[in-house]
Amino acid sequence: MKKYKINSIGLGLVLLLSISCTNDLNTEPKGKDKNLDQLLAIQPTLAGLVSQVYATLALSGPSGPGSTNVPGDDPGESPFLRGIINLQDFTADDMKNRWGDNGLDQLTTNTDWTDSNKFFGYLYNRIYYTATQSNAVINQMNLYNISSKDQIISEMRFLRALAYYYLIDCFGKGPILLETDPSGVLKNESTRAQIFAFLESELLAIEPKLPMNIGYGQANRSTARMLLAKLYLNAEVYTGTPRYADALVYAKKVIDEGGYSLAPNFGSLFQADNDRTSAKNEIIYALIADSQVSQSYGNTTYLINGSLNDATMTATNYGNPGGGTNAWGGHRATKAWYGLFGNSTAALEASNDDRAKLFWTNSASSDPAKRHNYEMNDYKAWIDGFPSTKFRNTNFEGPTVIASFANTDFPLFRLADVYLIYAECVARGAGGSTSEAVGYVNAIRNRSHASSITASDLTPDFVLDERARELNFEGHRRTDLIRYGKFSGGSYLWPWKGGVKDGTSIPATYNLFPIPLKAIQANPNLSQNLGY
Protein backbone atom coordinates (compact mmCIF):
# COMPACT_ATOMS: atom_id res chain seq x y z
CA MET A 1 0.00 0.00 0.00
CA LYS A 2 1.38 3.42 -0.95
CA LYS A 3 1.31 6.17 1.64
CA TYR A 4 2.17 9.80 2.03
CA LYS A 5 4.64 10.23 4.84
CA ILE A 6 4.11 13.61 6.44
CA ASN A 7 7.11 14.22 8.70
CA SER A 8 7.13 11.43 11.29
CA ILE A 9 3.52 10.45 10.65
CA GLY A 10 2.76 7.49 8.41
CA LEU A 11 -0.36 8.91 6.79
CA GLY A 12 -2.20 6.54 4.48
CA LEU A 13 -4.48 8.18 1.95
CA VAL A 14 -7.30 6.46 3.77
CA LEU A 15 -6.95 9.27 6.33
CA LEU A 16 -8.01 11.94 3.85
CA LEU A 17 -10.69 14.19 5.23
CA SER A 18 -13.47 15.98 3.42
CA ILE A 19 -13.72 19.70 2.85
CA SER A 20 -15.86 19.96 5.98
CA CYS A 21 -12.69 19.54 7.99
CA THR A 22 -11.94 23.19 7.32
CA ASN A 23 -14.66 23.99 9.84
CA ASP A 24 -12.17 22.89 12.48
CA LEU A 25 -10.03 25.86 11.55
CA ASN A 26 -12.47 28.10 13.35
CA THR A 27 -11.89 26.43 16.72
CA GLU A 28 -9.71 27.91 19.46
CA PRO A 29 -6.13 26.59 19.57
CA LYS A 30 -5.72 24.00 22.28
CA GLY A 31 -2.08 23.09 21.76
CA LYS A 32 0.20 26.02 22.33
CA ASP A 33 3.80 24.90 22.87
CA LYS A 34 2.97 21.22 22.31
CA ASN A 35 5.23 19.04 20.22
CA LEU A 36 3.80 17.54 17.03
CA ASP A 37 2.76 14.21 18.53
CA GLN A 38 1.04 15.94 21.46
CA LEU A 39 -0.66 18.36 19.12
CA LEU A 40 -1.99 15.59 16.89
CA ALA A 41 -3.39 13.83 19.94
CA ILE A 42 -5.68 16.76 20.64
CA GLN A 43 -6.10 18.08 17.07
CA PRO A 44 -6.04 14.95 14.86
CA THR A 45 -7.71 16.66 11.91
CA LEU A 46 -4.50 18.61 11.31
CA ALA A 47 -2.74 15.54 9.95
CA GLY A 48 -5.66 14.82 7.64
CA LEU A 49 -5.69 18.39 6.39
CA VAL A 50 -2.02 18.29 5.46
CA SER A 51 -2.50 15.00 3.64
CA GLN A 52 -5.63 16.31 1.97
CA VAL A 53 -3.80 19.22 0.35
CA TYR A 54 -1.34 16.84 -1.28
CA ALA A 55 -4.25 14.68 -2.41
CA THR A 56 -6.01 17.59 -4.15
CA LEU A 57 -3.54 17.01 -7.01
CA ALA A 58 -4.10 13.25 -7.18
CA LEU A 59 -7.74 12.57 -6.30
CA SER A 60 -11.16 14.02 -7.06
CA GLY A 61 -12.48 13.76 -3.51
CA PRO A 62 -12.14 12.08 -0.12
CA SER A 63 -14.62 9.22 -0.55
CA GLY A 64 -13.53 7.33 -3.62
CA PRO A 65 -13.62 7.98 -7.37
CA GLY A 66 -17.26 9.08 -7.32
CA SER A 67 -16.66 11.90 -4.84
CA THR A 68 -15.51 15.45 -5.48
CA ASN A 69 -14.11 18.25 -3.37
CA VAL A 70 -15.49 20.83 -5.79
CA PRO A 71 -19.30 20.87 -5.77
CA GLY A 72 -20.76 20.83 -9.24
CA ASP A 73 -17.68 19.42 -10.96
CA ASP A 74 -17.87 15.90 -12.36
CA PRO A 75 -15.70 13.66 -10.11
CA GLY A 76 -14.49 11.61 -13.04
CA GLU A 77 -13.70 14.42 -15.45
CA SER A 78 -12.39 17.13 -13.14
CA PRO A 79 -9.31 15.89 -11.20
CA PHE A 80 -6.07 17.85 -11.55
CA LEU A 81 -3.96 15.41 -13.58
CA ARG A 82 -6.78 14.69 -16.01
CA GLY A 83 -7.05 18.44 -16.55
CA ILE A 84 -3.32 18.80 -17.16
CA ILE A 85 -3.31 16.04 -19.78
CA ASN A 86 -6.44 17.39 -21.47
CA LEU A 87 -5.15 20.96 -21.62
CA GLN A 88 -1.42 20.35 -22.13
CA ASP A 89 -1.28 17.27 -24.36
CA PHE A 90 -4.58 16.98 -26.22
CA THR A 91 -4.43 20.64 -27.24
CA ALA A 92 -0.87 20.09 -28.51
CA ASP A 93 0.63 17.88 -31.21
CA ASP A 94 1.40 14.67 -29.36
CA MET A 95 -1.97 13.18 -28.33
CA LYS A 96 -5.58 13.20 -29.54
CA ASN A 97 -8.79 11.92 -27.98
CA ARG A 98 -11.48 10.28 -30.09
CA TRP A 99 -14.55 10.29 -27.85
CA GLY A 100 -16.12 13.44 -29.27
CA ASP A 101 -17.31 14.64 -25.86
CA ASN A 102 -18.48 18.24 -25.90
CA GLY A 103 -15.63 20.34 -24.55
CA LEU A 104 -12.99 17.66 -24.88
CA ASP A 105 -13.48 17.49 -28.63
CA GLN A 106 -12.83 21.23 -28.92
CA LEU A 107 -9.57 20.81 -27.00
CA THR A 108 -8.30 17.97 -29.16
CA THR A 109 -9.04 19.89 -32.39
CA ASN A 110 -8.08 23.42 -31.19
CA THR A 111 -11.46 24.75 -32.30
CA ASP A 112 -14.31 26.77 -30.81
CA TRP A 113 -12.74 27.47 -27.43
CA THR A 114 -15.19 29.36 -25.24
CA ASP A 115 -15.47 30.42 -21.62
CA SER A 116 -18.28 27.87 -21.17
CA ASN A 117 -16.07 24.84 -21.88
CA LYS A 118 -16.32 22.78 -18.70
CA PHE A 119 -12.76 21.49 -18.97
CA PHE A 120 -11.33 24.99 -18.57
CA GLY A 121 -13.54 25.37 -15.52
CA TYR A 122 -12.42 22.08 -14.02
CA LEU A 123 -8.73 23.04 -13.95
CA TYR A 124 -9.44 26.61 -12.83
CA ASN A 125 -11.55 25.32 -9.95
CA ARG A 126 -8.95 22.74 -8.95
CA ILE A 127 -6.22 25.41 -8.91
CA TYR A 128 -8.19 27.51 -6.45
CA TYR A 129 -9.27 24.53 -4.38
CA THR A 130 -5.65 23.53 -3.84
CA ALA A 131 -4.69 27.14 -3.07
CA THR A 132 -7.45 27.67 -0.51
CA GLN A 133 -6.79 24.35 1.20
CA SER A 134 -3.11 25.28 1.45
CA ASN A 135 -4.15 28.58 3.00
CA ALA A 136 -6.34 26.77 5.52
CA VAL A 137 -3.48 24.60 6.76
CA ILE A 138 -1.11 27.60 6.91
CA ASN A 139 -3.61 29.42 9.07
CA GLN A 140 -3.99 26.40 11.32
CA MET A 141 -0.24 25.93 11.69
CA ASN A 142 0.23 29.58 12.59
CA LEU A 143 -1.74 28.90 15.77
CA TYR A 144 0.90 26.55 17.17
CA ASN A 145 4.53 26.51 18.22
CA ILE A 146 6.03 23.22 17.10
CA SER A 147 9.44 22.38 15.73
CA SER A 148 8.18 21.40 12.27
CA LYS A 149 5.95 24.44 11.85
CA ASP A 150 8.09 26.24 9.25
CA GLN A 151 8.55 23.06 7.24
CA ILE A 152 4.84 22.26 7.05
CA ILE A 153 3.97 25.86 6.18
CA SER A 154 6.66 25.82 3.48
CA GLU A 155 5.22 22.61 2.03
CA MET A 156 1.79 24.23 1.85
CA ARG A 157 3.25 27.36 0.26
CA PHE A 158 4.91 25.14 -2.33
CA LEU A 159 1.63 23.38 -3.17
CA ARG A 160 -0.10 26.75 -3.41
CA ALA A 161 2.68 28.00 -5.69
CA LEU A 162 2.38 24.87 -7.83
CA ALA A 163 -1.34 25.54 -8.25
CA TYR A 164 -0.69 29.17 -9.19
CA TYR A 165 2.01 28.04 -11.65
CA TYR A 166 -0.74 26.39 -13.66
CA LEU A 167 -2.82 29.55 -13.30
CA ILE A 168 -0.08 31.72 -14.82
CA ASP A 169 0.67 29.16 -17.51
CA CYS A 170 -2.85 28.26 -18.59
CA PHE A 171 -4.99 31.32 -17.79
CA GLY A 172 -2.46 34.12 -17.38
CA LYS A 173 -4.24 36.01 -14.63
CA GLY A 174 -6.52 35.67 -11.63
CA PRO A 175 -6.76 36.56 -7.94
CA ILE A 176 -3.93 35.51 -5.64
CA LEU A 177 -5.72 34.14 -2.58
CA LEU A 178 -3.65 34.18 0.61
CA GLU A 179 -4.08 32.94 4.15
CA THR A 180 -4.18 36.57 5.34
CA ASP A 181 -7.19 37.53 3.21
CA PRO A 182 -10.36 38.48 5.09
CA SER A 183 -13.20 36.04 4.47
CA GLY A 184 -15.97 36.94 2.07
CA VAL A 185 -13.99 39.58 0.16
CA LEU A 186 -13.78 39.20 -3.62
CA LYS A 187 -10.21 40.02 -4.62
CA ASN A 188 -9.08 41.81 -7.75
CA GLU A 189 -7.27 39.78 -10.34
CA SER A 190 -3.49 39.90 -10.58
CA THR A 191 -1.75 40.28 -13.92
CA ARG A 192 0.58 37.67 -15.34
CA ALA A 193 3.59 39.76 -14.33
CA GLN A 194 2.24 40.13 -10.79
CA ILE A 195 1.63 36.39 -10.45
CA PHE A 196 5.16 35.75 -11.73
CA ALA A 197 6.63 38.11 -9.12
CA PHE A 198 4.58 36.47 -6.38
CA LEU A 199 5.64 32.96 -7.38
CA GLU A 200 9.30 33.93 -7.62
CA SER A 201 9.19 35.58 -4.19
CA GLU A 202 7.35 32.64 -2.59
CA LEU A 203 9.64 29.97 -3.99
CA LEU A 204 12.80 31.88 -3.11
CA ALA A 205 11.49 32.33 0.43
CA ILE A 206 10.59 28.69 1.06
CA GLU A 207 13.49 27.06 -0.79
CA PRO A 208 15.95 27.23 2.16
CA LYS A 209 13.23 26.20 4.63
CA LEU A 210 12.43 22.92 2.91
CA PRO A 211 14.59 19.86 3.72
CA MET A 212 16.75 18.35 0.99
CA ASN A 213 15.26 14.92 1.68
CA ILE A 214 11.79 14.15 2.94
CA GLY A 215 9.05 11.60 2.31
CA TYR A 216 8.34 10.31 -1.21
CA GLY A 217 5.54 12.29 -2.86
CA GLN A 218 6.25 15.27 -0.63
CA ALA A 219 7.67 18.73 -1.37
CA ASN A 220 11.38 19.20 -0.66
CA ARG A 221 14.03 21.76 -1.58
CA SER A 222 14.48 20.27 -5.04
CA THR A 223 10.77 20.58 -5.85
CA ALA A 224 10.96 24.30 -5.06
CA ARG A 225 14.08 24.66 -7.19
CA MET A 226 12.50 22.69 -10.01
CA LEU A 227 9.44 24.94 -10.03
CA LEU A 228 11.69 28.01 -10.03
CA ALA A 229 13.58 26.58 -13.02
CA LYS A 230 10.33 25.99 -14.90
CA LEU A 231 9.07 29.47 -14.00
CA TYR A 232 12.27 31.10 -15.24
CA LEU A 233 12.35 28.88 -18.34
CA ASN A 234 9.01 30.34 -19.43
CA ALA A 235 9.59 33.85 -18.09
CA GLU A 236 9.69 35.44 -21.54
CA VAL A 237 6.18 34.12 -22.21
CA TYR A 238 4.91 35.19 -18.79
CA THR A 239 6.57 38.61 -18.48
CA GLY A 240 8.21 39.50 -21.79
CA THR A 241 11.70 39.23 -20.25
CA PRO A 242 13.79 36.07 -20.76
CA ARG A 243 15.31 34.51 -17.63
CA TYR A 244 17.09 31.47 -19.09
CA ALA A 245 20.24 32.14 -17.06
CA ASP A 246 18.21 31.90 -13.86
CA ALA A 247 16.51 28.71 -15.07
CA LEU A 248 19.96 27.25 -15.65
CA VAL A 249 21.10 28.14 -12.12
CA TYR A 250 18.21 26.38 -10.43
CA ALA A 251 18.29 23.38 -12.75
CA LYS A 252 21.97 22.95 -11.88
CA LYS A 253 21.18 23.13 -8.16
CA VAL A 254 18.74 20.23 -8.55
CA ILE A 255 21.29 18.28 -10.56
CA ASP A 256 24.24 18.88 -8.25
CA GLU A 257 22.57 18.84 -4.84
CA GLY A 258 19.32 16.88 -5.15
CA GLY A 259 20.87 13.44 -5.06
CA TYR A 260 18.75 12.15 -7.97
CA SER A 261 19.90 9.78 -10.71
CA LEU A 262 18.42 8.57 -13.98
CA ALA A 263 16.55 5.29 -13.77
CA PRO A 264 18.52 2.65 -15.72
CA ASN A 265 15.37 1.65 -17.62
CA PHE A 266 13.15 4.35 -19.17
CA GLY A 267 9.96 2.28 -19.07
CA SER A 268 10.29 1.61 -15.34
CA LEU A 269 9.41 5.25 -14.64
CA PHE A 270 5.84 4.69 -15.79
CA GLN A 271 4.98 1.33 -14.24
CA ALA A 272 3.00 0.44 -11.14
CA ASP A 273 6.00 -0.12 -8.87
CA ASN A 274 7.80 3.12 -9.79
CA ASP A 275 7.72 4.11 -6.12
CA ARG A 276 9.80 1.06 -5.17
CA THR A 277 12.24 0.37 -8.01
CA SER A 278 15.26 2.36 -9.16
CA ALA A 279 12.79 4.64 -10.98
CA LYS A 280 12.17 6.29 -7.61
CA ASN A 281 15.69 7.77 -7.71
CA GLU A 282 14.78 9.86 -10.77
CA ILE A 283 11.37 11.09 -9.58
CA ILE A 284 11.59 14.46 -7.84
CA TYR A 285 7.87 14.87 -7.18
CA ALA A 286 5.13 12.32 -7.81
CA LEU A 287 1.35 12.33 -7.71
CA ILE A 288 0.53 9.10 -5.92
CA ALA A 289 -1.91 6.48 -7.20
CA ASP A 290 -3.03 3.31 -5.46
CA SER A 291 -5.64 0.92 -6.81
CA GLN A 292 -6.96 0.24 -3.31
CA VAL A 293 -6.81 3.40 -1.21
CA SER A 294 -6.53 6.25 -3.72
CA GLN A 295 -8.84 5.30 -6.54
CA SER A 296 -9.54 7.99 -9.10
CA TYR A 297 -10.65 8.31 -12.69
CA GLY A 298 -8.34 11.27 -12.96
CA ASN A 299 -4.85 10.13 -11.97
CA THR A 300 -2.82 7.74 -14.16
CA THR A 301 -5.96 5.61 -14.46
CA TYR A 302 -7.01 8.16 -17.11
CA LEU A 303 -3.74 7.83 -19.01
CA ILE A 304 -3.60 4.03 -18.86
CA ASN A 305 -7.25 2.99 -19.29
CA GLY A 306 -7.82 5.73 -21.85
CA SER A 307 -5.05 4.31 -24.05
CA LEU A 308 -6.28 0.71 -24.01
CA ASN A 309 -8.91 -1.01 -26.11
CA ASP A 310 -9.51 -4.75 -26.36
CA ALA A 311 -10.60 -4.30 -29.97
CA THR A 312 -6.96 -4.23 -31.11
CA MET A 313 -4.89 -4.98 -28.02
CA THR A 314 -5.06 -7.06 -24.85
CA ALA A 315 -5.60 -4.76 -21.91
CA THR A 316 -4.52 -7.36 -19.37
CA ASN A 317 -1.00 -7.14 -20.81
CA TYR A 318 -0.85 -3.66 -19.30
CA GLY A 319 -2.27 -4.55 -15.88
CA ASN A 320 -5.87 -3.74 -16.74
CA PRO A 321 -8.72 -6.28 -16.68
CA GLY A 322 -10.06 -4.91 -19.97
CA GLY A 323 -13.49 -6.03 -21.05
CA GLY A 324 -14.71 -2.73 -22.46
CA THR A 325 -15.62 -0.78 -19.33
CA ASN A 326 -12.04 -0.72 -18.06
CA ALA A 327 -10.30 -0.24 -21.42
CA TRP A 328 -11.74 3.03 -22.64
CA GLY A 329 -10.20 3.29 -26.12
CA GLY A 330 -9.82 7.05 -26.29
CA HIS A 331 -6.24 8.30 -26.57
CA ARG A 332 -3.82 7.87 -29.45
CA ALA A 333 -0.53 9.57 -30.25
CA THR A 334 -0.05 11.33 -33.58
CA LYS A 335 2.84 11.22 -36.02
CA ALA A 336 4.04 14.52 -34.56
CA TRP A 337 5.26 12.40 -31.64
CA TYR A 338 6.07 8.93 -33.00
CA GLY A 339 7.29 10.48 -36.24
CA LEU A 340 10.30 11.72 -34.30
CA PHE A 341 11.43 8.07 -34.21
CA GLY A 342 10.54 7.05 -37.78
CA ASN A 343 8.59 8.40 -40.78
CA SER A 344 6.62 5.17 -41.27
CA THR A 345 5.35 2.27 -39.21
CA ALA A 346 8.26 0.13 -40.38
CA ALA A 347 10.81 2.82 -39.56
CA LEU A 348 9.29 3.36 -36.12
CA GLU A 349 9.41 -0.34 -35.35
CA ALA A 350 13.01 -0.55 -36.59
CA SER A 351 14.20 2.21 -34.26
CA ASN A 352 16.69 1.22 -31.58
CA ASP A 353 15.32 3.88 -29.24
CA ASP A 354 13.43 2.23 -26.37
CA ARG A 355 11.05 5.20 -26.34
CA ALA A 356 9.97 4.29 -29.88
CA LYS A 357 8.75 0.92 -28.67
CA LEU A 358 6.04 2.43 -26.45
CA PHE A 359 3.44 2.74 -29.21
CA TRP A 360 0.90 0.09 -30.16
CA THR A 361 0.89 -0.48 -33.93
CA ASN A 362 -0.32 -4.08 -34.22
CA SER A 363 1.23 -4.10 -37.68
CA ALA A 364 1.67 -7.88 -37.62
CA SER A 365 -2.05 -8.59 -37.32
CA SER A 366 -3.55 -10.55 -40.17
CA ASP A 367 -6.76 -8.58 -39.73
CA PRO A 368 -6.55 -5.12 -41.38
CA ALA A 369 -9.29 -3.89 -39.06
CA LYS A 370 -6.96 -4.41 -36.10
CA ARG A 371 -3.83 -2.80 -37.54
CA HIS A 372 -3.33 0.81 -36.51
CA ASN A 373 -2.57 3.40 -39.17
CA TYR A 374 0.44 5.71 -39.11
CA GLU A 375 -1.69 8.54 -40.51
CA MET A 376 -4.53 9.90 -38.41
CA ASN A 377 -7.01 10.39 -41.22
CA ASP A 378 -9.90 10.41 -38.76
CA TYR A 379 -9.10 11.42 -35.19
CA LYS A 380 -12.26 9.67 -34.01
CA ALA A 381 -11.24 6.31 -35.49
CA TRP A 382 -9.50 4.13 -32.92
CA ILE A 383 -7.14 2.53 -35.43
CA ASP A 384 -5.95 5.91 -36.78
CA GLY A 385 -2.84 6.80 -34.80
CA PHE A 386 -0.90 4.68 -32.34
CA PRO A 387 -1.96 4.35 -28.69
CA SER A 388 0.86 5.16 -26.31
CA THR A 389 1.69 2.38 -23.86
CA LYS A 390 4.15 4.61 -22.00
CA PHE A 391 2.08 4.43 -18.81
CA ARG A 392 1.20 0.93 -17.64
CA ASN A 393 -0.47 -0.67 -14.64
CA THR A 394 2.08 -3.50 -14.59
CA ASN A 395 5.02 -3.90 -12.25
CA PHE A 396 8.52 -3.54 -13.63
CA GLU A 397 9.74 -6.09 -11.08
CA GLY A 398 7.74 -9.04 -9.83
CA PRO A 399 4.15 -10.14 -10.45
CA THR A 400 1.34 -7.71 -11.24
CA VAL A 401 -2.10 -7.60 -9.66
CA ILE A 402 -4.62 -6.82 -12.40
CA ALA A 403 -6.72 -3.82 -11.34
CA SER A 404 -9.29 -1.45 -12.81
CA PHE A 405 -7.62 1.56 -11.16
CA ALA A 406 -3.98 2.53 -11.52
CA ASN A 407 -1.16 1.81 -9.09
CA THR A 408 1.23 3.90 -11.18
CA ASP A 409 2.44 7.18 -9.67
CA PHE A 410 2.70 10.16 -12.01
CA PRO A 411 6.18 11.75 -12.13
CA LEU A 412 5.23 15.42 -12.27
CA PHE A 413 8.91 16.40 -11.85
CA ARG A 414 11.81 14.13 -12.78
CA LEU A 415 15.52 14.44 -13.38
CA ALA A 416 15.45 13.99 -17.16
CA ASP A 417 13.31 17.13 -17.41
CA VAL A 418 15.91 19.04 -15.36
CA TYR A 419 18.69 17.81 -17.67
CA LEU A 420 16.77 19.07 -20.69
CA ILE A 421 16.01 22.43 -19.05
CA TYR A 422 19.75 22.87 -18.48
CA ALA A 423 20.50 21.83 -22.08
CA GLU A 424 17.92 24.22 -23.53
CA CYS A 425 19.31 27.14 -21.52
CA VAL A 426 22.83 26.37 -22.75
CA ALA A 427 21.58 26.03 -26.33
CA ARG A 428 19.90 29.44 -26.01
CA GLY A 429 23.18 31.04 -24.95
CA ALA A 430 22.35 31.49 -21.27
CA GLY A 431 25.75 30.32 -20.04
CA GLY A 432 26.60 27.01 -18.45
CA SER A 433 28.75 24.31 -19.98
CA THR A 434 28.11 22.96 -23.47
CA SER A 435 29.97 19.78 -22.67
CA GLU A 436 27.87 19.23 -19.55
CA ALA A 437 24.67 19.91 -21.49
CA VAL A 438 25.67 17.42 -24.19
CA GLY A 439 26.53 14.91 -21.47
CA TYR A 440 23.11 15.29 -19.86
CA VAL A 441 21.32 14.85 -23.20
CA ASN A 442 23.41 11.80 -24.04
CA ALA A 443 22.73 10.28 -20.62
CA ILE A 444 19.02 10.50 -21.45
CA ARG A 445 19.41 9.22 -25.01
CA ASN A 446 21.86 6.43 -24.20
CA ARG A 447 19.56 5.22 -21.42
CA SER A 448 17.03 4.48 -24.20
CA HIS A 449 19.70 3.16 -26.60
CA ALA A 450 19.47 6.21 -28.86
CA SER A 451 22.66 7.45 -30.50
CA SER A 452 24.82 10.10 -28.88
CA ILE A 453 24.91 13.70 -30.07
CA THR A 454 27.79 16.16 -30.35
CA ALA A 455 28.02 19.83 -29.42
CA SER A 456 27.05 20.87 -32.96
CA ASP A 457 23.71 19.04 -32.56
CA LEU A 458 22.75 20.98 -29.43
CA THR A 459 20.37 23.59 -30.82
CA PRO A 460 17.15 24.88 -29.24
CA ASP A 461 15.08 23.03 -31.85
CA PHE A 462 16.90 19.77 -31.17
CA VAL A 463 16.15 20.14 -27.46
CA LEU A 464 12.47 20.75 -28.23
CA ASP A 465 12.34 17.50 -30.21
CA GLU A 466 14.22 15.64 -27.47
CA ARG A 467 11.75 16.95 -24.90
CA ALA A 468 9.00 15.46 -27.07
CA ARG A 469 10.74 12.10 -27.34
CA GLU A 470 11.37 11.97 -23.59
CA LEU A 471 8.50 13.88 -21.94
CA ASN A 472 5.39 13.73 -24.13
CA PHE A 473 2.18 12.62 -22.39
CA GLU A 474 3.60 14.06 -19.16
CA GLY A 475 1.82 17.41 -19.28
CA HIS A 476 4.53 19.65 -20.80
CA ARG A 477 3.96 19.85 -24.54
CA ARG A 478 1.62 22.85 -24.91
CA THR A 479 3.87 24.96 -22.67
CA ASP A 480 6.95 23.90 -24.65
CA LEU A 481 5.37 24.77 -28.01
CA ILE A 482 4.24 28.18 -26.76
CA ARG A 483 7.74 28.95 -25.44
CA TYR A 484 9.12 28.14 -28.90
CA GLY A 485 6.46 30.18 -30.72
CA LYS A 486 5.07 27.06 -32.40
CA PHE A 487 1.68 26.58 -30.76
CA SER A 488 -0.54 29.18 -32.39
CA GLY A 489 -0.33 30.49 -35.94
CA GLY A 490 0.53 28.37 -38.95
CA SER A 491 4.33 28.08 -38.90
CA TYR A 492 4.10 24.63 -37.33
CA LEU A 493 1.20 22.32 -38.13
CA TRP A 494 0.23 18.95 -36.70
CA PRO A 495 -2.60 16.47 -37.30
CA TRP A 496 -5.99 18.00 -36.53
CA LYS A 497 -4.65 21.36 -35.42
CA GLY A 498 -7.53 23.73 -36.07
CA GLY A 499 -9.83 20.79 -36.83
CA VAL A 500 -8.11 19.98 -40.15
CA LYS A 501 -6.45 16.62 -40.88
CA ASP A 502 -3.07 18.08 -41.82
CA GLY A 503 -3.42 21.08 -39.53
CA THR A 504 -4.16 24.75 -40.04
CA SER A 505 -3.40 28.02 -38.31
CA ILE A 506 -5.04 28.80 -34.97
CA PRO A 507 -5.31 32.28 -33.41
CA ALA A 508 -2.68 33.67 -31.05
CA THR A 509 -5.40 34.14 -28.46
CA TYR A 510 -5.29 30.35 -28.00
CA ASN A 511 -1.94 30.74 -26.24
CA LEU A 512 -4.12 31.30 -23.18
CA PHE A 513 -7.32 29.58 -22.17
CA PRO A 514 -10.41 31.67 -21.44
CA ILE A 515 -11.29 32.57 -17.87
CA PRO A 516 -14.32 30.35 -17.12
CA LEU A 517 -17.64 32.18 -17.39
CA LYS A 518 -18.79 30.92 -13.98
CA ALA A 519 -15.70 32.41 -12.35
CA ILE A 520 -16.41 35.82 -13.90
CA GLN A 521 -20.03 35.61 -12.86
CA ALA A 522 -18.98 34.80 -9.29
CA ASN A 523 -16.39 37.60 -9.13
CA PRO A 524 -17.09 40.75 -11.19
CA ASN A 525 -13.50 41.89 -10.53
CA LEU A 526 -12.33 39.35 -13.13
CA SER A 527 -11.95 40.14 -16.83
CA GLN A 528 -11.88 37.86 -19.84
CA ASN A 529 -8.72 37.08 -21.79
CA LEU A 530 -8.34 38.76 -25.16
CA GLY A 531 -10.20 37.07 -27.99
CA TYR A 532 -12.86 35.22 -25.98
Characterization of this structure:
This protein is mostly helical and 532 residues long. 37% of the residues lie in helices and 5% in strands. It contains 18 helices and six strands. The strands form three sheets. It has a two-stranded antiparallel ribbon with strand order 1-2. Strands 3-5 form a two-stranded antiparallel sheet. A hairpin with a 2-residue loop joins β1 (3-6) and β2 (9-12). α8 (221-233) runs antiparallel to α10 (244-257). The longest helix has 24 residues, at 118-141.
Please specify the SSE layout and strand pairing.
Elements (H helix, E strand, L loop, with lengths): L2 E4 L2 E4 L23 H7 L2 H11 L24 H9 L6 E3 L6 H6 L8 H24 L7 H22 L21 H15 L14 H13 L1 H5 L4 H14 L25 E5 L12 H7 L24 E3 L1 H4 L6 H6 L59 E5 H13 L6 H14 L12 H12 L5 H7 L33 H6 L10
Antiparallel strand pairs: 1-2, 3-5, 4-6
Helix pairs in contact: 2-5, 3-5, 5-6, 6-7, 7-8, 8-10, 10-14, 14-15, 14-16
* Overall pLDDT confidence: 91
Strand content: under 5%
Major sheet characteristics: 2 strands, antiparallel
Which structural class should the secondary elements be placed in? mainly alpha
Tally of contiguous helical segments: 18
Provide the low-confidence segments as ranges: 1-36
